[in-house]
Structures are given as C-alpha cells and as structure tokens.
Amino acid sequence: MTLLRLDEVTVRYGERAALDAVDLEVAEHETVSVLGPSGGGKSTLLRVVAGLERAHTGRVWLAGRDQAGVPTHRRGVGLMFQDHQLFPQRDVGGNVAFGLRMRKVARAEAERRVAELLELVGLPGAQRRAIASLSGGEQQRVALARALAPRPKLLMLDEPLGQLDRGLRERLVVELRQLFGELGTTVLAVTHDQGEAFALADRVVVMDGGRIAQTGTPLEVWQRPATEFVARFLGFDNLVDATVHGQSADTRWGKLPVPDGTPPGPCRLLVRPAGVRLTSPEKGLPCTVAARTFRGDRVALVLQPAGAPRLEAACALRDAPKEGERVGVAFDADDVVVLGAGS
Amino acid sequence: MNSRLRHAVAAALFGSLGLTTLVACGEDSGSSGGSGSKTVKLVSHDSFAASKAVLKEFTRQTGYKVQVLPGGDAGAAVNQAILSKSHPQGDVFFGVDNTLLSRALDNDLFTPYQAKGLDKVPAALQLDAAEHRVTPVDFGDICVNYDRKYFADKKLAPPKTLDDLTKPAYKNLLVTENAATSSPGLAFLLGTAARYGDDGWQGYWKKLRANGVEVVDGWEQAYYDRFSGSAGGAKGDRPLVVSYASSPPAEVVDAKPRPEQAPTGVATGTCFRQVEFAGLLKGASNTKGGKALLDFLLTKRFQEDVPLNMYVNPAREDAKLPELFAKYGVKIADSATLDPRKIAKNRDQWVKAWSSLVL
Amino acid sequence: MVLARPVKRRERPAAAPEAAKERPGRLRGAALRLALMAVPAAFFALFFVYPVAAIVTRGLRIDGQWRLGRIGDVLTDPAVLDILWFTGWQAAASTALTLAVALPGAYVFARFDFPGKRLLRAVVTVPFVLPTVVAGSAFLALLGHGGLLDSLWGVRLDTSVWAILLAHVFFNYAVVVRTVGGLWAQLDPRQEEAARVLGASRLAAWRRVTLPALAPAVAAAALMVFLFTFTSFGVIQILGGPRYATLEVAIYRETAQLLDLPTAAVLTLVQFAAVAAVLALHAWTVRRREGALKLVAPEQTARRPQGAAQWALLWGVLAVVALLILLPLAVLVERSLDAPGGYGLDYYRALQSVADSGGTYFVAPMDAVWNSLRYAAVATVFAVAVGGLAAAALTRKAGRLVRGFDALLMLPLGTSAVTVGFGFLIALDEPPLDLRASWILVPLAQALVGVPFVVRTMLPVLRAVDHRLREAAAVLGASPLRAWREVDLPLVARALGVAAGFAFAVSLGEFGATVFIARPDHPTLPVAVARFLGRAGQLNYGQAMALSTILMLVCAGSLLVLERIRTDRSGEF
After folding, report:
1. Which of B16, B174, C179, C478 is the most exposed place for a label (fewest CB within 10 A)?
2. In tens digits, what is the pLDDT along chain B, a chain of 359 residues?
3. Is C332 touching B (CB cutoff 8 A)?
C-alpha cells in the first residue's frame, strides 16, 4: 500500500525551483533513499512532506489523505535533521520523550518507551546525560531515538550519517537497515553518498536540479543509469554520442553492440567499465594505457584510444597491463546503456 | 483626531488589551461617575495634604467623598488644569498661587463662586475680590533662613533684610534655588523685584553674586545638602538658605523633648508672600459638590488643620494656630507682594534675565 | 533491455488553484507577524503615539493653523543649540564611560563564579531604581563638599561634568552588566577556545570570536544607556547645578513651568529627531550581526577564576563596584540609621507612627511598598506581554516596516516623561478612554519604559535560537504555540527573567511620569520619598532615607526572587 505520494510537487525560491513537478511514491515498510548532489532539492523534498515548506503547486498524500492545510505537528511524520537539532536545554531523556509528551503519552509509559529506544539505539541508561556531553555519533543515535519514539507513520532522515567518520558510518548503515526491517518503519532518507543510499534503501531516487532523474532498486540504478547526469553522479565517465542502426551503434570508439529493441537514430551511450573488455592490440579498438589505479583486488584503467575520448576499464589484478602498454578493447552489449535525454 | 475615530480606536484597543478586566480589578472603578455622583474630585499639586479625620468630617457633613487627583508640582498642576480645560479632570482645583494666578484666570479656568466664610479672610489675601473666581485658602512666606548655631559661634548677628545679604560679613554664606526650576527660588527673585523695582533688582543680584551667592537647582539640595542648619541631610557649609518661614517649626516638630528655640531662624525682612487659592473648575461634573468643598476649605475645621499638614498659614483670621507654630514660627509683618498681573507679564523675562545674570 | 525508466517530463498544470498564490508560506508568516504585532502596535499607538502627537499638535497647531515657523525660531536660538550640543556630547561620553567601566563587569558576572555573585548582581541594579534625587544626594556625599574625595584629596567634582558622567555610570552599570552579561554567559566558550587553538592570542580570540557574537547585546546596551543619559533629568539638575541643562530639562521647564507649548513641541521634535538618528545608527551597526549563535546553559560557562590575571580582573571589578555603587548606597543606609540619639531604627519606627497620625500626605511604608509592588507587577505584566509579543514578531528579520516598528518601540526611552504625562492628560480624557482618574495609567506609563527593555533583551536571544529547533519540535507534534513554549521559552527564559526584572525595577523606580499621574492617596515608594524630602526637618529627611533604603531592599529582593524563579525553571522534565 502506498503510504506517501507526491503529485507534481513544485517548490520555488524566487525564480529557482527547488522541486520541479516531482512525483514520488513510497510504499508502506519500504525504505527509499533520495540521492543527489547538494543543493539538488533533497532536503526541500523532506521539508515539503513534513509540512515545513509549502508546495506552490501539487499535492502531498500521506496514507491516502491530502496534506494540504495540515500543519506539521499533525502530520505524524518523523524527521531526523541533518545536524540533529537536539534541544540543548533538555537532557537525553527529555529529548527522546518530547514527541511522546506532545502526544500526551502517560509518564510511566513514556519513560518505558524512552528506555526501550535508548536500548535500541545502543545508549542504554543515558536518560540523564546532557546533550553537550554527547559525541557526534551519540547525538545521532539520540536524534534517531527521538524521531522514532512517537512511532511516526513515516520516518524521514536528512543526511542521517553525514557527519560521521567512515567506519562508524558503514557500521551504522547496516544497523539502521536491520532496525528499520525489524520495526517495519517506512523510511524516506536523503543523502549525497551513493554508498549509503544503496546500502540502506529498497529503492533509490536520484534527483537532479529539483527533478527526479531516476527511481529504481539500487541494482537497477547502478546497472542502468537513466540519464547522463545519473551516470556521471555515480562516477561513470565512458559516455559517447552514438547513432543506432539495428543491433549496433556508430561511435567515436567504433561500432558498439546495443541491447535488443534500442530504437534506431542518434542517442547517448554509457559503457560501464565492466563492459570494456581487454583483448590483444590487434583485435578491437587499439588503445594505450594512460593510467592505472589499484582498487583492492581490481585495477581501474584509463585507456587512450587514438583520436577518441578516453575510456575507463576495470580488470582483475593479475591481468592488468602496465602503463604505456598497448591493448585492444572490445565491448559487451550487457554493459552498454542507452541514456535518456535527461537534463 | 476626531472624536468618533478616537472612540473607535479606543474601543478596539480595549478589546485587544483586555484592559477591561484589569480596570475592573481596581478598587475604585465605579467612583468616576458623572453628575449626581457622591464624589467630589479635587485636583491639586503634590504638596496637598489634609488630615483624614477632617476629610471624613466633610463627608459626614455633606455626604460627598473627596477624591484627590495629582498634578505634579504647583506649576505643572496649573498647566495641566489649563491643558485639560475642555475636559476637566475634577471639580475643584486647589493650589494656584499668586505667582501663577494670572495665567489661570486668563485661561478662564474657573466658575465664579463666593465661598461661605470669605468675610473672615483679610482683604489683602483676596486678590480676585471683584469676581470671586478663586478663593484664598492659605498663605506662606519665602524667607532666608539662618543657622542659629553658626551665627552664635561666630558671634555674628544674623542678617535681617535683603540689603544685609550683600554685606561683606555674609560673604559666601547664602545658598538659593534656581528661579527657573524651583518655586522658592522664583519667589525669592520676585521678592527682590518687589523690593527694588523693575530697574533695581538686577543691580541687587549683581551685588549678591559678588557676595558669593550659590545657586542650586532645587529646594531639597539647597536645604539638605548645602545648608548647615538642617538637622537632616549632609551638613552643608552655608548657614543661610532661601526656604520657608515655616521651616523652623518643621525642624522641631518631631524633636523630643522640644527645644527652647528652633535651630534655625528667619530673616524677617527678606520675605515674599505666596497666597494659595482654590476654585471651581469650569465644566465640573459635580458643581454642587465642588461648591460644598470650597465652603469646607474655608471652615475653621479645615483651616486649623492646614498648618501642620501643609506648613502654611490659614487664610482665616480667626483660625487658631497650633502651639508649634505659635511657639517656633514667626509672624511676618512686612512680607513683599506683587500684583499677579505684573508677575504674569514679567515672569518669563525676569527669569531669563536672572539666569543670564546669575548662572 | 533498458530497465531504467527515462524521466517523464510533464508540463506543469497551467491553472492549478494554488498557482495563483505566490509564496503561500511566506504570506502566512507575514500574517502571523502582523497578528503578533497587533497588540504592541495598538498599545503604542494608543498610549504613546497618540498622547505625544496630541501634545505636540497642541503646541504647533494654533486656531486650526499649523505654526511651523516656530521650528525655525527655536532651532536658531543659540541657547537651544547649546543645550542640544551639551545633551548630545554628555550622553555620548557617559555611554562610552559606562561601557568601559561595565564591560569587564559583564564578563566577570558572566564567566566567573564567586560567593555572593547573585546578591551582588541584584545590588548593582539597585541604583537603577533609586529616585535620582536620593541617589544624587548620596553621590554628593562622594564627590561634593565634605565628601570622600574632598576629605581625602580636596577634590570636589559636584557642579562639574565629571559628576554627571560618573553618576550616569552609577545608574547604568546594571544595564550593561545585565544585557551583555546575559548573552555572554550563554556563549559557548569553546568557540573562543577553538580560536586560541588556531593560534589567536587571548585578545585576538576575544576580538574575533566573542566580540562579534556579543555585538548586538553591546549595541543594545549602548543604545539604552545613550537614550537614558540623553534624556537625563535629575542627575543633571542635582549634580550639574543650574548651569547644565539637557533637552529633557528644557522640555520640562517649557511645559510644566512656562506653559510654552510651541517651544516644548519643537524641542520634543528635536529630541525625536536625535533619538531617531541614534536608532538608525544602531540599526545600521547591528544589521547582519545578529545571527544564530550556539547557546549553552549559563551554569556551564562560569567557573572560578584561574591565574593571577583573572583574579586581578575579578578584584578590579569588585573594587569598582564597591567604590562606584556600593559606597553611595551605603551612604544612604548610613543616613537612614543616623538618628539624633545615635545609630538606630528610629526613622523606620517613625515611618509607621507618622502615617498613623492621620494626615493624607504621608503613607505607611508598607502601603507605599504595596502600592509600588502592585503597580510594578502590573507594569511588568504589560511590558512583558507587549514586549514579548513584539520581540516574537520581530524575531524573523524582515522589511522596512518591521524595522521601523522596532525603532518605534525604543522611542519612549527618548521621550520626556513630562511630554508623556501631559499627553496622557489631554489625549485620554474622554470616555471610554478617560483614564485620568484610573490607577491603570501609572503601570501603563511605566510599561512604556519597560517594553524597550524587554524587546532589547529578548530579541538578540530569540534571533540566536536556531529556527530548525522549532521545526524539530513541530515535526515531533508540537503546535507553533507549544513549540514556542517548549523551545523558545526555555532558551529565552533567562533573557525573559532579565527583561522582566528590568521592567519591574524600572517601574519600581519610575518617578517622572508617576508624579503626574499617580493618585495621591496611593503614592509609590519614590513619590513617598519625594514627599518626605519636600519637608524640612531631621525626621523627614531621615525617613526619606529610611524609605529609600526600603526601596533598595524591595528592589534587590524582587530581583533576587525573579532570578530564582528562572533558575528553577531550567531543570525541565
């Protein structure tokens, strides 16, 4: 069942549209990550859903009810702010219990729930600690507990792990996913970190300049970026103009195989590095190895074809050619993606 | 702003501020009724005082309760009454003296009324005897006071007259008040103008200045901070001060046991007389009550209460002075006076000339 | 097969119903601001603008004709120009001196813990409420003939401008300590520490980090001190002697003594123009300086002084406080005990018996205390309600209108009490607003002076509150009102306490307007003090001192109680 639906929501700041006719659906118990560069309208999306920002046009539906005119405090959503925004004058317990107090939960019940949540986020017995005495990670956990405490229909996270160091972040992502799974919470998270988004979410939404560039499972988005923007945002650089004739396309890298059913005519193609296969220099597209970088058990190569843009390729450690070596390149149709017009 | 708009604004504001409830909390919200009210409103300066028993007596006799409304010092009170002429604050005004009388009369503040008992008031005090717009209630004298101990210790005779004050023997001894800001200061200036005339008073003040007169802004400072004879205050170093003829009795009023003599004396030849009047305000909502109050102000009961409450002399000749005044006070026989019209005409320019001369 | 769905770009619906409204959110914010502003705006329109306009109009409009020629006449009068010049420079000098003397005090009170701190903070506020005639007299005991300086070094400062400046420091020390210290205590010291770690010297760190954060509070304090000293009245008269006159003195003279309303009106306009210029300057300095600050609980920032330099600073400040504030106050207390038969409580006992003797002139001290407390309590409620709403409305920075409103709220500080008092008299004289006989007029007049304090103390703190905290509360289910109560209120509780304390103290000590409008049968403490001082005699003088001492005690006591209330509240849930 759809818990959250956005219909053509637009928010403008002056002339600039922070959200431009955005459509989005989030199903119950689903975790959706909104991914995009800073300033791409991600936070605005959360603020519109929370009612902190008014949509100029379009509608927001929560659990089937139009939210127009419903003030923030009656929407029953949870929002974890980017920098937590814990109440400095209250202790940890006071922060976590805040939402319960607003819902007039009985004191004993509230205390029980606070204890339970602090246990859940790994801070048992921290009720009386002052906010100023918490580390960044602990503040994050308290903010999460505070957002979860009133059992919101929808939990929204704004850069939930943004300020944490890498190790902690990777551990927390796993914990969070587990936690949301156990609680059955519906989650809408925004982040600029693709690793975080892919690790956390059932579904990923990539935003570009206030518009949704692509939605899909992490695998779909990773394997089939919809637009050049998405492709570049995910770190893919093998992009080229092409003209499709039947099963293949003409490009500056020569003839490339394309998936079945690609409409003929001019288009833009992405070749994922995994689809760039090394052969002997005599076969395929002749290139010089311009650079190579070790990435754990794989090596990323930058190849320079004669009179054409550079190519990125990946290969196993033992197969890696040296810099300056001449190689040939062939392409796998499975890793060639036809990109949409996008923006 | 026109009056309808004013009402609309006022009504809106009352709603928004919720003042109504607050006003209702005041203990006397009901007493500001219109005519036929059992309250007489007396507008006065902040020195007005009377015994509670005497005011009760008035209520017992007439059925009216007196409500006293404030007006700052004597000058401010008169000016407020003039400004609020179209909607007078109360029914009776008390406290306009001869230095301000012309201003009040020129502004047509009062309804004529001849109070009962006026025949017992000396003619010299009845400055509006022709029309009875105002009724004299009391008088007092502004005189130079001296510190008895100082002059006894120095074996020096205290000064008696204005001329004495310019003598070298009294160099650097006198402190007076700013005529522009202080009522006794102004009265003293008027006294010199009365004594030396339009042409002579400036010359007198030049001599006074050469003899080291000190000018401070208010009576409190002159009397308590600079004058050496006052028992209270900071013990100043000036044994001569411009004050009231009633200051010596005031010095001993609370002394136990009372001394033979007050510690201060009065230079009887330096005095200027202030007469205080009351009048029925034009547009008063309770005219009947106001007239009754004016009558009451001239009764012996009220008149004999005046000295110990306001430290001035009753206007009625037959009012008995309390023992304190009889023993420690002095009767000033030849106090200077000036025609109120002359005061009104020259006051501002005299004060200006005085300021540039002395300050 | 391409799984990714290309983005479908839809046309925006041409005429969606909401499309007509530009920025609905902003509009709602503006509407809320206007609603919040309605009460303070109405209050000021009715109880300030209208009365003052009425008295000025009375002066300049004669027989239905505007007589604006008077403006030129008055403004070219060299005597008026002298007064204007003196008024301006003494206020500027007093403000500079007060800041120089009191800023170290603000630091010490904000950052150091020492025994008796709370009591001392209440005591330094006492001068603020003392009637100037009493305090001036005490100050004379220091600077005047036979005073401390005179007997030690033969130096007499009375009737010199130094006496005026020092007395202004005496009166306004608390304004700086409380306004600046209140914010200082809540500034996170770690930011300054961060600058130190980055290589900034102690002074540089203070100048670069703390001072900019404090700037709005310092500017607010400076503004208030300037306005107070610009409109100084009693101090100038008592300590300066008749040679010195401020605009305020001139306006009083023209209105209350000479009834020269045209001249008084022009001088009032000049005063307004000068005050408006100062407000504009203030707004220009402060703009963009007020930002979100990281505020912490004041208890966390104060500690015992460490090292010789800090101890020296603490002792230096205490010495200044002792000399400049405690000593004059002690003189008053000493005089109230200095009875003819040796030191004792004679005057205090006499207060009661004098009242029992049956005159209307003197009141029983407890009655005066009760009157004062009652007026002050009502005035504080008015001031906090009006000022609090105004501060809430002004929290979000906005356009010219709002800034103008902000400035309007400050104007009463720069307006002569006699102008307001006389304005009340001629403006509020018809039903339903014939308030001239009502006691409510006194707290109303006092609240006019209290409101600027409330706004100026609360605004910097309110603006420093991160608005996302309010959003966090809203998301957790708090209505806007509840969010204000749960988030803003606890954070500004301290500022509110400071503001309420100020408003309370101001109305306890207010004399200028009260004397025109207070009912004689319900005199306040300052009015009662003035009555005793207006009569000759040792007992009267002694009783005036005794009553002043009681006023000091009531003031200090009230402030202590207010401070306690606000500390109790910080430990929520």
Report:
1. B16
2. 444 444 444 444 444 444 433 433 333 433 444 445 789 999 988 788 888 899 999 999 999 999 888 667 788 888 888 888 888 888 999 989 998 898 899 999 999 999 999 999 999 999 998 999 999 999 999 999 999 999 999 999 999 999 999 999 999 999 999 888 788 999 999 999 999 998 899 999 999 999 999 998 888 888 988 899 887 766 788 999 999 999 999 888 877 788 888 999 999 999 999 999 999 999 999 999 999 999 999 999 999 999 988 889 999 999 999 988 888 988 888 899 999 889 988 988 898 899 889 87
3. no
Give the residue among A323, A343, A329, A316 at the shortest CA–CA distance from A283: A329
Which CATH number, 3.60.40.10, 3.40.50.300, 3.40.50.720, 1.10.357.10, labels domain A2-232?
3.40.50.300
Residue of C nearest to B231 (CA): C538
Q: In this structure, what token pair is assigned to residue B176? A: 């007076």
Domains, chain B, with CATH or none: 29-139+275-314 (3.40.190.10), 141-274+323-358 (3.40.190.10)
Q: List the structure tokens of B209.
A: 């200045």
Question: pTM of the full predicted structure?
Answer: 0.74
Superfamily of domain A233-339: Nucleic acid-binding proteins (2.40.50.140)
Which residues lie below 8 Å from residue A159, measured CB to CB, with a gap of 6+? A82, A190, A191, A192
Tell me how crowded residue C398 is: count the other CB atoms within 10 A of its CB: 16
Which chain C residue's Cα is nearest to B51? C359
Nearest CA in chain A to C4: A226
Classify domain C63-569 at the CATH topology level.
MetI-like fold (1.10.3720)
Q: Do C482 and A97 touch (CB under 8 A)?
A: no
Residue A304 CB partners (closer than 8 Å, separation 6+): A287, A288, A289, A290, A310, A311
Give phi and psi for B199, each to the nearest 5: -90, -25
Q: Do C5 and A211 touch (CB under 8 A)?
A: no
For residue B255, what is the nearest residue in chain C, using CA coordinates? C539
Instruction: Please judge whether A85 and C469 are an interchain contact, meaning their C-beta atoms are less than 8 angstroms apart.
Output: yes
Structure-token match 């026109």, residue found: B2
Mutate to test the interface with A, among C1, C7, C469 (most CBs of A within 10 A): C7
Please report, for chain C, the start and end positions of each structural domain, with discontinuous segments joined by +.
63-569
CB-nearest partner of A225 from C4, C12, C24 = C4
CB-nearest partner of C25 from A54, A76, A211: A54
Domain ranges in chain A? 2-232, 233-339
A179/A141 Cα distance (integer angstroms): 12
Which residues from C are below 8 Å from A249, CB to CB?
none
Q: Determine the distance from the C-alpha atom of residue A330 to the mean position of all C-alpha atoms in its chain, rounded to a whole number.
A: 32
- C140 interfacial to chain B (CB closer than 8 Å): yes
Shortest Cα distance, chain C CAs vs residue A317, angstroms: 30
Residue with tokens 């550079």: A310
